[in-house]
Amino acid sequence: MNLALFDLDHTLLPIDSDHEWGEFLVRIGAVDAAEFTRRNDEFFAQYQAGTLDPVEYLEFSLGTLAQFPRERLEALHKQFMAEVVLPAIRPEVVALLKQHQDAGDLLAIVTATNHFITKPIADALGVEHLLAAMPEYDAEGNVTGKLLGTPTLGAGKLTHTHAWLEKMGKELGQFERSYFYSDSHNDIPLLSVVTHPVATNPNTALSAHASLHGWPSLHLFND
């Protein structure tokens, strides 16, 4: 068994699911449009630049989720999946995942986006294991707005991957082949420790780093 890890946004999806979730809430009038769009765009620009404070962003993101009761959130997410996510899933991505599944590899999505947003997406892609930022829930199942544990961004992805494998009685080094597919230079810490890093739809910074280190590039889409 080999290990295949995947970033989500702009890697398996040609969109940023976290940013698009915010745009969706604005579009349907669920949040204050002007203020939310300003902050959402500001955080997205920081992420692209590699200057994002993950805790600050997650407190903003999870705080937005906390404004809605669980039943309302689930209904909103079903609508979000139907209108935004499912139309964005490309056959090239499905084929890549199937290639690893057919080979008997252990697959996981490792994403900085929170678990509430990404769990239905991972399910739609047929990937059982998901490492994502975990929201805190109250006794009634509502999001409190707090983050559990550390963010899954940058070096945090490496930390969470090691912890997940340890729970399964495994170690990264025991896999003959370990893959990580990502579009972002933010993921260089995890890309640097697998045997087969793949710069997937890479941004400019990651493309340069991959070229310097002889990593292959994969272009699933150019969006």
UniProtKB/TrEMBL annotation:
Top-level division of the source organism's lineage: Bacteria
Keyword Hydrolase in annotation: yes
Database matches in InterPro entries: HAD-like_SerB (IPR050582), HAD-like_sf (IPR036412), HAD_hydro_SerB1 (IPR006385), HAD_sf (IPR023214)
Recorded GO MF terms: hydrolase activity; metal ion binding
UniProt xrefs under CDD domains: HAD_PGPPase
Alphabetically ordered keywords of this record: Hydrolase, Magnesium, Metal-binding
Keyword field contains Magnesium: yes
Coiled-coil parts of chain: none
NCBIfam families, per database record: HAD-SF-IB, HAD-SF-IB-hyp1
Protein name, entry field: HAD-IB family hydrolase
